[in-house]
Amino acid sequence: MNVVIIEDEAAVARRIARLVQLVLGQRLQRLDLCTNLTEARQVLASRPPDLLLLDLNLNGRDGFDLLTPLLAESFHVIVVSAYKDMALRAFEYGMLDFVPKPVDLERLRQAFGRLDRQAEATRSPVRRLALKHAGRTEFIALDDVVSFHGASDYSEILLRSGRTMLCDKSLDTLASLLGGEFRRIHRSHIVRRADIVALRSAEGSRYLAELSDGRTLVVSRSRIKAIREELSS
Amino acid sequence: MHPRFILAPWLQRVAALIVLLAVLSGAQQLRRMLPGGGLQFEAGDVQRGVIRVKPGDDSSWATATLADGSWLTPDSAGFAAAMSQAPITWWMRETLTLDRAPRPTDRSQRLYLQINQEAEVFWDGIRISAELPAGRYGTTPESRLLELTFPPESLAAGPHHVAIRFPHQQRTRNLSPEIELHAGDAFLVGPGWEVVPAGDPRGVAPDNEAGISAARPAHKASFLTAAHAREEVPGTAFWIRRQLIVTPQAGNDDAWVLFESFKGAREVRWAGRLIGTSGRVGTDRATEVPGRARMWHSIPAELFQPGRHLITMRVSSHHPRLAGEGLLDDFEIWRQKEVVSRVVRAVGANHVQFGLALVSAVLFLVLYGIVERRSTYLAFSLCCWGAVLSLGAGVWWAHTFETLLYPQERWIVWLNWTGSALGAAMLVNYTVLQLRAGARWCWNLVGALGIGLAFFGTTDPTARSAAMFAAGAGLAAGVGVVRLPNAARDATWLIIGLGMLLITLMLEAGEAWGMAGLILSAAFVLGRELREQRLARQAATLRNAELETERARLEALRARAEAELLKASIQPHFIINTLTALMEWVEEDPAGGIRFIQAIEQHFDLLLRCANQSLIPITHELSLCRAFLKIVGFRKLVDYTLATDGITPEEFVPPLLFHTLVENGVTHQDGHRGPVEFRLLGDESSECRRYRFFAPYAPTGSADPVRKGRGVGLGYARARLEEAYPGRWSLRSQGENDCWVTTIEITAAPRSLS
After folding, report:
1. CB pairs below 8 Å between A and B: how many?
2. Mean pLDDT, chain A, as a whole number?
3. What is the per-residue burial (b if ≥16 Cβ within 10 Å, else e) of B350-368?
4. pTM value?
5. Residue B707 carries which DSSP code?
6. How far does A13 lie from chain B, in Å, by closest CA?
7. CB A10 to CB B671 under 8 A?
């Protein structure tokens, strides 16, 4: 995977880079170090990574405004910062994890561990999703979302209003962020658990889920068993 | 209400003077109308005592004319010829004008004619005296007191004709009888004193007319009226006598004769009987024992019967008296029961006034000595002390009534004069000071001249005191008139007080009460001054309190700025980044890690040592900056240096001033990887000390408000500059050629800590 680190303190950047190499090992394909946002934007535009490690206090600027546009991108963001008070808020906006300074190897490993898994139940729930829309960063409340549908590079978000919005994050990425409220039923669908009314099988060993809004979506074979168990319990 | 005049200043002064004069003349009129004053007579077109004479016979005035109908004057031709005819009676006439009719409040309703020979008097054509025996010749010119019986309603105000018929005096050619009309006191009526040298002190007392004739040497007896009694009298002892008429209203009680100021030794006789002596009469200073200046002599009731009486005294006066003073002022006779109340009234009033002046003098002296050294307080105190001396003379006088010998009396008079002069001079001085009139010494000189003029110009010694005080008060009132348009409201009260004092002096009635009024107005002015002072003090206290709160607020700001910076220096970002970098160093390059730790320790130590001071040596500040740069160098893996030029080691600057700029400069680096050199340049002009800090490789043209200098760091720097150099510093920050330049200017050389 490709990783970009944005950190203005060279010694700290070096440390983070070293630790990332230790954690990822062979999986790490490319590691870019940027010391400022301008340089970082160029890198992110030309070679989008899978993961971004970001220091919130770059060159004395306020961290949160730095963060929110980056959260609308396709990659995960892990914040490495001394400002712990922003962590909770950053989680609500869809940050993958927050690693406080001084950077600890185990903590970093733990953060990387979240990459490929479904979000844990103990994770701070995401409440808002950042989306790129008409050149700006827009936020939608997760409560307004009915379901997520994905293609490879981006996702479609269906809102309660009926509107559909596009998100640069893939469903895999979103699955790591979304909590227990949502369930991935298919490679291309994430729906609310509460919206699943019934599960039934169709011909050709296909499984369908009936949703409360009347739609019927395909459930993947690899997931049907687990979903049945979760619904019955 | 502040008196505002809309007239021009010079016109105001003229108006004020006119008002003053009107007041004074009104006061004069007022004086005339006071009860108790005697009737005033004004002679008509003929000078009193020199009368046109005309031979006449027994017929009435209307028909008495010369053959040709003309009247003769003593210096007209034919007068001597007419005089040589004898026997003949003569007519004299005079026009007298009464200013008013007698009033019940007049001390006497009776009028007496004093004429120096026997005569028959006609008043407006009506005979009002006893009839002359026909053919009677007058003998010697002697003073006669004729009782006149005026018909009712004949004493109306206005002109009246007095005609006198008298027998021709063969012995003398000088026919100019003196005529005076007296409106008499209850007892004291009559012509003046007669004086006859005593010759042999043991000679016969001239209790009657024969006695006078026998005792008289070749000297011509001269009349001593009350006025003339003040003239010098011959050196040896002499007799004086006076006729009195005791009226029926006098009653039957004992009476007392009071001599107010008798400057001699004397033996007093009433109707031939000795009723008292004082001292011993002598022919020179060695033989004379001085008598008391004041004395009462009692007249037994059986002697004090209605009718004509003679009071005779043998006197001498060889001991020192004040120059210009006569033998005695007039004397008075009082009923026994009236004596006490009169004395009490006079003496009591004097003591009250004395007490008031004394208290006021002491009060203002205390104010001057203890409260505030204002020249007005001292001046008014001295003025009151003058009044104290002057009134104190009266107190001394009252308390030495029984014992004071006449030679000592002059000291009392001198005390009175000194007090009046001092009071008058100080009154002018005080008024000039209080009203802030310029040319103080000019006014004082004029005042002294005026007072001196009043002293030497007044012939009557008893009036000198009042004259001096009047001169002083008049000049002070003049100052008030001049300053009236400019006078503040309080000082206007002083001018009013002076005006009242002047009025009482003019009226000669209770000038000491006028002084009391002046003291009151001065007290009023004082009260207002003190009130103004109190208000000013309150305002100053309020200002002080405001300044204190302002100072406390600034102190709080400073403390907060200091705390902010300390917090900023050790805030999590700085510490944690430093520690994170340190972790890397420790793991990868332990030796370097140790050096890193040492740099951190050094920075912290320098920081702690200077955080609570307002100025530190510039060397300390630069060490602090360099220690910081070393830390950041370890963190950012960049070689940071600070070059200086134009800095002298003896300078002082507020702590962390340049450190803040270094921090900002480090934070805003744009990612340049090579060594970075910050520069601090100092230069000095005649007006200010200037520091310029150059932070290279800083992106310019940024709209970031932090770059524009409103971040916490520069706010701290501004607070420290304001604390150390209040109001005389400036800080500007701007980009120049890829460099960020911060310029600090201080308009005076930094203070050195002593």
Report:
1. 69
2. 86
3. beebbebbbebbebbbebb
4. 0.45
5. I
6. 9
7. no
pLDDT tens, position by position, B444-479: 999 899 999 888 887 677 778 888 888 888 888 888
Q: Say what the pLDDT of residue A39 is.
A: 84
Quick check: A39 contacting B, CB < 8 Å? Answer: yes
**Structure-token pair, residue B307:** 């009718």
Residues from chain B that touch A9, judged by Cβ atoms under 8 A, are: 577, 580-581, 635-636
- Report the residue count for chain A: 233
> How remote is the C-alpha of B677 from its chain's centroid?
82
Radius of gyration of chain B (CA): 51
CB B158: neighbour CB atoms within 10 A? 11
**Secondary structure class of B468 (helix, strand, coil):** helix
Q: What is the pLDDT of residues B515-536, one digit of tens each?
A: 778 888 888 888 888 888 889 9
Which residues, in sequence order, are CB contacts of A151 under 8 Å at separation 6+? Answer: A188
pLDDT tens per residue across span A40-72: 888 888 888 999 998 887 766 666 777 888 888
- Pairing status of strand B652-653 against strand B295-299: unpaired
What CA–CA distance (Å, rounded) separates B20 from B75? 46
Amino acid at B476: A
B190: left (phi over 0), alpha (psi -120 to 50) or beta: left
What is the three-state SS of chain A?
CEEEEECCCHHHHHHHHHHHHHHHHHHCCEEEEECCHHHHHHHHHHCCCCEEEECCCHHHCCHHHHHHHHHCCCCEEEEEECCHHHHHHHHHCCCCEEEECCCCHHHHHHHHHCCCCCCCCCCCCCCEEEEEECCEEEEEEHHHEEEEEECCCCEEEEECCCCEEEECCCHHHHHHHCCCCEEEEECCEEEEHHHEEEEEEECCCEEEEEECCCCEEEECHHHHHHHHHHHHC
Q: What is the mean pLDDT of residues B410-435?
A: 90
B637/A11 touch (CB, cutoff 8 Å), yes or no? yes
Q: At what angle do helices B409-434 and B440-457 cross, to 10 degrees?
A: 150
Residue B42: pLDDT above 60? no
Give the tens place of pLDDT for each residue, B482-505: 887 776 766 777 877 887 777 777
Cβ contact A36–B576 (<8 Å): no
Instruction: Kindly state whether B706 is in contact with chain A, defined as any CB-CB distance less than 8 angstroms.
Output: yes
Structure tokens at B40: 């005033």
Asked if A125 and A88 count as a contact pair (C-beta separation under 8 A), the reply is no
Enter the tokens of residue B466. Answer: 């009042």
Rounded to whole angstroms, how far apart are CA atoms B262 and B291? 8
pLDDT at B224: 33
Instruction: Measure the N-to-C terminal CA separation of chain A; round to a whole number of Å.
Output: 37
User: What average pLDDT does this structure show over B347-366?
Assistant: 89
B524-530 contacts at long range (C-beta below 8 A, 24 or more positions apart): B524/B490, B524/B493, B525/B434, B525/B490, B525/B491, B525/B493, B525/B494, B526/B364, B526/B367, B526/B377, B528/B489, B528/B490, B529/B490
Query: Between B335 and A5, where is the model more confident?
Result: A5
pLDDT in tens, B147-168: 666 766 777 777 777 777 666 5
Give residue B300's pLDDT band: very low, low, confident or very high (50, 70, 90): confident
On the CB side of B510, how many CA atoms lie within 13 Å of its CA?
12
Cα–Cα distances in Å, from B74 out to B355, B575, B706, B753?
60, 136, 124, 109
pLDDT of residue B623: 94
> How much is the pLDDT for B455?
87
Q: Amino acid letter at B638?
A: V
Residue of chain B minimizing CA distance to A19: B584
Across the interface, whether the CB atoms of B636 and A11 are under 8 A apart is answered: yes
Q: Residue A115: its pLDDT value, please?
A: 85
Contact call for residues B290 and B406 (beta carbons, < 8 A):
yes
The Cα A181–Cα A126 span in angstroms is 10
pLDDT at B361 (0 to 100): 93
